[in-house]
Design a protein that fits this description.
The complex is a heterodimer. By secondary structure, chain A is of the alpha/beta class. Chain A has helices at about 5-15, 30-45, 60-70, 80-85, 90-95, 120-125, 140-155, 180-185, 215-245, 270-280, 300-305, 325-335, 355-370, 380-395, 400-410; strands spanning about 1-5, 20-25, 50-55, 75-80, 100-105, 130-135, 160-165, 175, 250-255, 260-265, 285-290, 295, 310-315, 345, 375. Chain A contains 15 helices and 15 strands. Classes of the chains: A alpha/beta, B alpha/beta.
Chain lengths: ~425, ~190
C-alpha cells in the first residue's frame, strides 16, 4: 500500500510484517521513532504474540536479543551511535554465536564532541563484528532491506544490520510502498533455527574455544560472510519476483556505461549523487555512480568488475578513520588491488553537515581533472582549523578544542565570569 | 521540482507543517519529501523544516538551499537569521503576521516579488480563534495553497485530518480554510 509516511514508521510497519517474536528495545535518537512505532503496534495487538521487552540499556537490549534468538525466536532491535558502541561486546557475541538477529542502525555520529546527527561512524565501528551490513538509499529501500534481512539472517544463521541515515531517512516523510502481509509471508517463511536452546533436548551454546579450534570457528564465520556474497543477489532477485520492484543486492551501478569517473557511496547520499551525475551527463561529462548496498560482506569481485573501465574512482564517505583516511575507500582499493586506477577519498557529511549538490559538483570537477587532495574533506573550513592550531601553538593550556571552535565561530557565549 | 522552506521556532510545529504539506501533495499523486533541519532543536530556538514536491521520484537529500516558497511562522526571526537566503525573485513568501510588510520593515524588500507571490496571514490569530491554541501551521498551509496553487485545499484539509484525527483536525482544517479564503478574496 502506497503511503506518505515517516521513514521510521515505515520501518516499524515493515518489521511488524516480518512477524518478530521478540523485540528488545532501548530508545536513542534518531532510531527512537522505530521502536516507539513498534511498541504501539505491540500494545494494539498488531504484533500478535510478540514479546516487547523494555530493557535498561543497549547492552541489555542485545543481550536479551541473544537469549531470545538462541531460544529460537525471530528477534529484532534497533539502535544508533553511542547505543551501538555500548552494546559492542554483545554485538560481537551475537555474530560469534551465529544468531540471526536483525538490527536497524539509524546512522549517527559518535562523540565526543557529542552530536546527534547523521554520519556512518557508528556502523563503521562495528563493521568487522561479523554482522552482515546493508545500507539503504531511501525509505523504500529501508523497508525492503529489512524484509530481505530476516530471510538472509535466518538462511545463513548470521545477524544482519540494516543501516539507514539518521534524520535524513529516519525522519523524512516520503512515499513508501508498504507491502501486503501475504506478500511478506510468501517471501519470508517461519524461522527454522539451526541451533536452539530447548529444555527437551539440552545443549550448550557459547563454548570456550582454545587456540586449537578458535581459528577454525572464526574462519567459518568469515566463510558465512562469503556465502552471503552469493545469497544476497539471489534474495534480491526473488524479492523482485514477489514484490515487483528491484531492491537490495550487493552493488547497484548508475549510468556507469562509458564512465571515466565513477563515484561510490553508501546510503542516502547516493540520491544526491545521482542527481549530480544526471546534470553532468547532460553536459557530456563521462561520470557514473555505484551504490554499495552490502558493506559486509564487501563485494570485492563485483566492484572490481564494475570498475574495470573506470579511469578514476571517487569514494564519498560519511566516516573518517582517524590517522588513516577513508574506510570505504580503503575497501575499494582492496577491490582494485594490482590496478593503477586512482581512488580518491572524499570525507563528507560528518556530524550531519549537509552534502550539497554544489559541493559535489565542485569536488567531482576537481577529481575529474585529477587535481584533488586525498583524502579531501568536503567543505572543511580551514580558516577555523588554522586559528585553533594557532591557539594551541600560542599557549600550553589552550583549552578544550570543541569549546574553542564554537566560541571562535560565535556559536556560544564566551567564558563564564 | 518545487521546494519549500519553513522557518519557525522549536515548538511551533514547523516540522509537522512540512510533513502535512508533503502528505497533501501525496494526496494529489505527486512525489514529495519532508524533513527537519539538521541543527540544534529546542523550544524557542530558530528551526527550519523542508518540503519538496515533484512529479517524479525525489532523490536529492540536501537541505532546501533555493526555496521556491518561504513560509515564516514567527516574525521575530525576520532580522535574526538568514531567512531569505536563496529565495528567488520569482519565489513565494508567506509570513504569519497581523501586520503589513511595510510595517515589518520589508516594504522595499518585497517589491522584488510579483504582487500575487506574497501574502501575510494572521495564522496565529486564526489558530486561536478556531483551535484555541497558538499553532499557526494549518492556517499557513491554507494560505500556501491559496497563494501558490501547488496543492488544493481539500488535500491540505485531508493531510491535517490525517495528522490530527478527530475534533482537533476539524478545527485546524477550519483554520486552514479561513486562511485560504482570506487570501483568495484579497
Amino acid at each position: 500500500m502506497l503511503k506518505q509516511v515517516e521513514g521510521s514508521q515505515a520501518v516499524a510497519e515493515a518489521i511488524a510484517l516480518c512477524r518478530p517474536e521478540v523485540i528488545c528495545a532501548y530508545p536513542i535518537t534518531p532510531q527512537t521513532h522505530i521502536v516507539e512505532g513498534l511498541s504501539k503496534l505491540a500494545r494494539t495487538g498488531e504484533l500478535g504474540n510478540c514479546q516487547y521487552i523494555n530493557v535498561e540499556s543497549e547492552f541489555a537490549a542485545m543481550s536479551a536479543c541473544i537469549g531470545a534468538s538462541a531460544a529460537g525466536a525471530r528477534t529484532y532491535t534497533a539502535t544508533s551511535s553511542q547505543g551501538l558502541l555500548f552494546m559492542a561486546e554483545a554485538v560481537y557475541n551475537a555474530a560469534g554465536l551465529g544468531l540471526p538477529i536483525v538490527m536497524t542502525v539509524g546512522n549517527r555520529a559518535i562523540g565526543a564532541p557529542i552530536n546527534i546527527w547523521n554520519d556512518h561512524s557508528d556502523s563503521m565501528a562495528m563493521a568487522d563484528a561479523g554482522w552482515i551490513q546493508l545500507h539503504a538509499e531511501s525509505n523504500q529501500e529501508a523497508v525492503d532491506l529489512h524484509i530481505q534481512a530476516f530471510r538472509l539472517a535466518e538462511q545463513l544463521s548470521v545477524p544482519v544490520m540494516v543501516c539507514e541515515d539518521g534524520f535524513i531517512l529516519t525522519h523524512a516523510y516520503e512515499r513508501v510502498d508498504v507491502p501486503d502481509p501475504d506478500q511478506v509471508d510468501r517471501y519470508l517463511p517461519a524461522f527454522e533455527p539451526v541451533q536452539m536452546l530447548d529444555p527437551e533436548e539440552p545443549i550448550t551454546m557459547g563454548a570456550m574455544v582454545g587456540p586449537e579450534a578458535f581459528m577454525e570457528v572464526r574462519y567459518l564465520a568469515h566463510h558465512k560472510q562469503l556465502q552471503a556474497i552469493d545469497v544476497i543477489p539471489e534474495l534480491s532477485a526473488e524479492f523482485e519476483t514477489v514484490f515487483g520492484r528491484e531492491s537490495g543486492g550487493l552493488i547497484k551501478p548508475y549510468r556507469t556505461e562509458g564512465a571515466e569517473t565513477v563515484v561510490i557511496a553508501l546510503g542516502s547520499v547516493i540520491g544526491s549523487i545521482k542527481d549530480v551525475v544526471d546534470e553532468l551527463r547532460d553536459d557530456d561529462v563521462a561520470i557514473g555512480a555505484i551504490k554499495v548496498v552490502s558493506f559486509r560482506p564487501f563485494p570485492l569481485a563485483q566492484l572490481r568488475d564494475a570498475l574495470a573501465d573506470a579511469e578514476r574512482v571517487v569514494v564519498v564517505e560519511k566516516d573518517l578513520a582517524l590517522g588513516l583516511g577513508g574506510i570505504v575507500a580503503s575497501n575499494v582499493r582492496m577491490a582494485l588491488r594490482g590496478l593503477r586506477t586512482p581512488v580518491y577519498t572524499v570525507i563528507a557529511g560528518l556530524g550531519g553537515r549537509p552534502i550539497t549538490k554544489q559541493s559535489l559538483h565542485r569536488v567531482f570537477a576537481q577529481a575529474g581533472a585529477d587535481e584533488i587532495d586525498d583524502p579531501h574533506f568536503l567543505d572543511l573550513d580551514l580558516a577555523v582549523v588554522d586559528r585553533e592550531l594557532a591557539r594551541a601553538r600560542e599557549k600550553r593550556r589552550s583549552g578544550p578544542i570543541a569549546e574553542n571552535i564554537l566560541r571562535d565561530m560565535g556559536l556560544v557565549g564566551g567564558k563564564l565570569g | 521540482m518545487f521546494q519549500i522552506r519553513i522557518h519557525g521556532r522549536g515548538g511551533q510545529g514547523g516540522v509537522a507543517c512540512a510533513e502535512m504539506l508533503s502528505v497533501a501533495a501525496f494526496q494529489e499523486d505527486m512525489y514529495s519529501q519532508a524533513f527537519p533541519s539538521f541543527g540544534s532543536e529546542r523550544m524557542g530556538a530558530p528551526v527550519m523544516a523542508f518540503c519538496r514536491i515533484d512529479d517524479k521520484e525525489i532523490r536529492l537529500r540536501e537541505p532546501v538551499m533555493n526555496p521556491d516558497a518561504l513560509i515564516v511562522q514567527d516574525t521575530t526571526l525576520l532580522h535574526q537569521v538568514e531567512l531569505f537566503r536563496g529565495l528567488d525573485t520569482r519565489g513565494y513568501l508567506i509570513v504569519n503576521t497581523t501586520r503589513r510588510y511595510s510595517d515589518l520593515g520589508l516594504g522595499d524588500y518585497v517589491t522584488r516579488f510579483p504582487p500575487h507571490h506574497i501574502c501575510t496571514v494572521p495564522a496565529t490569530e486564526l489558530a486561536l480563534k478556531f483551535v484555541g491554541r497558538p499553532l499557526p501551521n494549518a492556517a499557513l498551509l491554507g494560505a500556501f495553497a491559496a497563494l501558490t496553487r501547488r496543492v488544493f485545499l481539500p488535500s491540505v484539509a485531508a493531510a491535517i485530518r490525517e495528522k490530527f484525527p478527530g475534533e482537533i483536525g476539524e478545527k485546524n482544517a477550519a483554520a486552514a480554510t479561513a486562511a485560504y479564503d482570506s487570501i483568495r478574496t484579497n
